[in-house]
Amino acid sequence: AKAAGRDAIRFFTSEMNEQVQDRLMLEQALRHALGNGELSVAYQPQVSATTGQVIAAEALLRWTHPELGAISPARFIPLAEDLGLIERIGEWVLRTACEQALAWKVEGRPLRVAVNVSARQFRSANLPERVAAILEETRLDPALLELELTESMLMGKVDQAEEMLRRLKGLGVTIALDDFGTGYSSFAYIQHFPIDTLKVDQTFVRAMLTGKSAVAIVSAIIAVAHSLGMRVIAEGVEMEAQRNQLVELGCDELQGYLLGRPVPGAGFFAVGESGAAP
Ligand code: C2E
Ligand code: CA
Ligand code: CA
Ligand code: CA
């Protein structure tokens, strides 16, 4: 039993070593990803639930490493936060997305572009100045830019968060609350913040197919959001049945694989391309 224990420990440490090395290697690679041109932005359509028209696109960061291939944002974004790289990367995403939105506008397709803001970016006091500088640089109409935040960023230092939102709103951009329903906040709490759009988290949209309670929850979210003057986007719409139900519940916009997968900006309006936005 002792020997087995020792083997287990040896096995465990070598596995841990591997994990540490994996992380170190990924860290090193991530430090150079932006400079090496390995990052790109994909755009996923947000369509009107009533007309089916594409009215916006969410910018989603992509990292393709020359040897490791595509690395999931769920894996490298927390790493970028830890390493203090997210401000620079986030700013690059913002500029790239604004340039893309301007290009679409010039083509006669004025789409809103939604950009994810990380917790660390939201905590840096000069975020509004940076956003303002990019808007000026790209000459994009601020009304075409939506910033996506999550509930957890609004918890804690309420006054500070409120002040930050007011400064951002002062630029003329809109604010969306991402992954709504997964955190601990409530309507009583968020009604104090100047939020334009609620994004119903995909876990509810998924659960709608099997459970009546999820339908009731989504229905309630939409009703209360509307009464507070917010627009509602449902995320992760994959099935026709979900779309129909969400339309029936009065959801404003839909996003998900059913409506279109994230694609490079140049392919966004490509006709007849599989997986491209309509
Ligand atoms: P998120 O902001 O909640 O983005 C939605 C995620 O759901 C995206 O994953 C998208 O590809 C995926 N998705 C869209 N439709 C469907 C669907 O119908 N079914 C399923 N199963 N998934 C769907 P992705 O691109 O892997 O991004 C994961 C997360 O990484 C994002 O979640 C966001 O939190 C973060 N992220 C992505 N880009 C950025 C960025 O530029 N900055 C920051 N700070 N975070 C980002
Ligand atoms: Ca998002
Ligand atoms: Ca989300
Ligand atoms: Ca998420």
Automatic annotation (TrEMBL):
- Domain of life (superkingdom): Bacteria
User: Which residue intervals define the domain EAL in the entry?
Assistant: 23-276
What positions belong to coiled-coil segments? none
Record's protein name: Diguanylate cyclase
Q: What is the lineage of its organism?
A: Bacteria, Pseudomonadati, Pseudomonadota, Betaproteobacteria, Rhodocyclales
Range of the intact protein held here: 804 to 1081 of 1081
